[in-house]
Task: inverse folding
């Protein structure tokens, strides 16, 4: 694509009406305000052996995305050791369904596995070579032991676990972490107490393995868990309680691991302070490593291929803000490679998985392209105005040889206007020269091998050219960035000056302009919002002053009433909560839901929305309350001295609620009612926040 001197590509402009009503993503960036080393993102990688990756992927991942601190690998004990022969096959062929005809054998996830010609040594050694450290999840046979159908004992499990640790540490010297089992409520289908018995056997096995290997101190293989998902806080509390009650003198919890799926970036980013406070409350050392061994912003049903782009955008936000507020957490996003028939929404790479697959046979999907752009950032992070509550993210970084501007849009399609000032102060050899610019785009039609399976090109360059700074500044523009769209500009001076080595200790931001705030948005006002009430999914509504009477039919949907915001949404800044009082006028108990939605919300996936529920007896009324979550300090304010530190959420803050600063719709509905219900919405209220509880600057 050609471009004008100001960097506007010759893409079709949006219709005037849309452009007029949607404020652009706008930032003014002072290139001099570089203040900390740009975080190493993505720091972790996750693999799967449900369809084992080609060994070359380990090398390709490092080359394309940078060397990971930790790579998450897997070992299935029932593939390595056959209970029928009691023989080990340490270099087993991954995915062979050797128990498919054994009815007594617990299936676990065998039905998802794809047999491969890849052997375990090749898999483990490849990723060990191309990662600082390896985390190995060891699992299987747990349900078989609990069922008692195969004649296996806990002593058997402990011994094969121990032999696995000894053997694989010898062939993979940077095997550092051993995670015990995987999502015990889902895959093992066991209780917290039953899981802890396996954890206890595992730490004993690791202790014995370390002794036999002669490993002490920092050289030890570390053991941890509980590798939980879903309601992770409840399950962690149960695990920490069991560990604290364990009287064993040799008990070990060297790291804590868990999975983050379908959690808002707000929850993920503030997790470290929450977990370290929990550890301390149980008398467990709180300074141990914290590792998210699987993470995707949105899970959705398997085979939901279109969610790959949603995760591509969402990962940038969760990884970046976690680096700000939870710097002691390493995230291994799910997943480098998997079975594309069921898990395309998570995959970074696609292609064949033969032992001899070449690197040029593998290609990046949108999530992988997004991680590639994230890895392209320069040495120093530049201060930019950002917030966890906003539906956009702008990152910038600089080195003496280039500057990167990175924009992700989580809201309505809209233009992008970025002004970068004071370039000669970082490009000190620039003089009157020009700057080369390359612009990358990821969206539904660019860098997207999901929507276009014939595309193998990785992050797509949509413009290359030159810019001439005016008064040391350039302006970067884009006419329309779609929801979950990603842009990245790379600016390169003709000649690099000396290295930049004088970061700003207390960075400052340029004064905000109206387009950079939510100040122009209308504040949520229910007196006016009532006028926007619309029936949803076959419901009928009748207004009586400030009340709404609602009739919902039997339905497989979510019938009820929706209050739609004006274009651009309502601002909920300065609010503590939204309340809805509902009276059940039916003859049966009714469960009603209050949903607050951002742009493009999908309630079924909990995407860009928050939902709370109440069961209301017939003839009674209850008030549903949705807290508006307070925001932590902005990244620039929190990192003002350039040092990483953990943000600990104050005890007075709500832990569940709406994490964004704009609302596009509010719904009061019934989920899949099996009969007709009637209810009245008796009151809708906004509760102002106590400014003393907010940390937002």
Result:
């Amino acid at each position: 694509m050609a471009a004008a001197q100001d960097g506007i590509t010759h893409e079709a402009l949006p219709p005037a009406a849309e452009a007029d009503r949607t404020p652009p993503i706008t930032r003014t960036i002072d290139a001099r305000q570089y203040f900390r080393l740009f975080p190493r993102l993505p720091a972790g990688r996750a693999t799967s052996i449900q369809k084992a990756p080609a060994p070359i992927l380990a090398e390709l991942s490092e080359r394309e995305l940078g060397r990971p601190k930790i790579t998450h690998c897997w070992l299935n004990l029932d593939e390595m050791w056959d209970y029928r022969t009691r023989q080990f096959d340490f270099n087993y062929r991954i995915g062979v369904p050797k128990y498919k005809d054994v009815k007594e054998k617990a299936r676990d996830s065998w039905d998802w596995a794809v047999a491969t010609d890849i052997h375990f040594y090749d898999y483990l050694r490849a990723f060990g070579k191309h990662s600082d450290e390896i985390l190995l999840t060891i699992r299987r046979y747990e349900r078989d032991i609990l069922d008692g159908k195969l004649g296996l004992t806990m002593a058997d499990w402990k011994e094969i676990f121990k032999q696995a640790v000894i053997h694989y540490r010898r062939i993979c010297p940077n095997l550092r972490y051993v995670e015990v089992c995987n999502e015990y409520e889902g895959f093992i289908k066991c209780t917290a107490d039953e899981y802890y018995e396996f954890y206890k056997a595992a730490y004993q096995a690791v202790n014995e393995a370390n002794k036999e290997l002669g490993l002490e101190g920092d050289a030890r293989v570390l053991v941890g868990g509980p590798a939980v998902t879903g309601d992770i806080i409840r399950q962690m509390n149960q695990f920490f309680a069991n560990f604290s009650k364990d009287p064993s003198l040799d008990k070990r919890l060297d790291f804590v691991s868990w999975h983050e799926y379908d959690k808002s970036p707000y929850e993920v980013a503030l997790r470290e302070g929450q977990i370290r406070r929990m550890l301390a409350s149980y008398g467990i050392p709180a300074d141990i490593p914290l590792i998210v061994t699987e993470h995707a912003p949105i899970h959705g049903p398997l085979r939901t291929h279109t969610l790959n782009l949603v995760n591509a955008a969402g990962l940038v936000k969760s990884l970046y803000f976690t680096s700000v507020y939870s710097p002691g957490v390493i995230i291994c996003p799910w997943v480098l490679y998997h079975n594309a028939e069921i898990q395309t929404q998570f995959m970074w790479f696609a292609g064949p998985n033969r032992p001899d697959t070449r690197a040029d046979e593998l290609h990046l999907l949108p999530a992988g392209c997004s991680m590639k752009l994230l890895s392209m950032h320069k040495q120093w992070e530049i201060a930019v105005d950002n917030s966890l509550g906003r539906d956009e993210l702008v990152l910038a970084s600089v080195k003496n040889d280039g500057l990167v501007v990175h924009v992700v849009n989580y809201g309505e399609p809209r233009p992008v206007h970025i002004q970068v000032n004071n370039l000669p102060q970082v490009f000190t050899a620039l003089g009157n020269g020009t700057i080369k610019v390359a612009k990358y785009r990821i969206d539904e039609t660019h860098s997207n091998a999901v929507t276009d399976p014939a595309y193998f090109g990785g992050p797509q360059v949509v413009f290359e050219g030159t810019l001439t700074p005016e008064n040391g500044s350039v302006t970067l523009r884009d006419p329309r960035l779609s929801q979950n769209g990603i842009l990245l500009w790379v600016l390169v001076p003709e000649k690099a000056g000396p290295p930049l080595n004088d970061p700003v200790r207390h960075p400052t931001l340029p004064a905000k302009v109206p387009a950079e705030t939510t100040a122009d948005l209308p504040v949520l006002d229910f007196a006016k919002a009532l006028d926007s009430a619309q029936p949803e999914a076959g419901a009928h509504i009748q207004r009586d002053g400030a009340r709404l009477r609602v009739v919902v039919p039997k339905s497989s949907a979510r019938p009820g009433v929706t209050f739609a915001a004006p274009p651009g949404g309502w601002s909920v800044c300065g609010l503590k909560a939204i309340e809805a009082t509902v009276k059940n006028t039916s003859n049966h108990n009714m469960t009603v839901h209050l949903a607050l939605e951002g742009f493009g919300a999908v309630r079924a996936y909990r995407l860009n929305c928050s939902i709370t529920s109440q069961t209301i007896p017939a003839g009674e009324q209850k008030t549903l309350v949705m807290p508006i979550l307070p925001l932590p300090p902005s990244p620039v304010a929190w990192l003002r001295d350039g040092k990483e530190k953990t943000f600990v959420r104050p005890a007075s803050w709500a832990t569940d609620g709406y994490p964004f600063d704009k609302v596009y719709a509010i719904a009061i509905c019934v989920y899949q009612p099996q009969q007709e219900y009637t209810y009245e919405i008796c009151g809708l209220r906004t509760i102002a926040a106590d400014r003393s509880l907010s940390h937002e600057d």
User: Anything to note?
Assistant: Residues 526-693 form a domain with the Jelly Rolls fold (CATH 2.60.120.430).
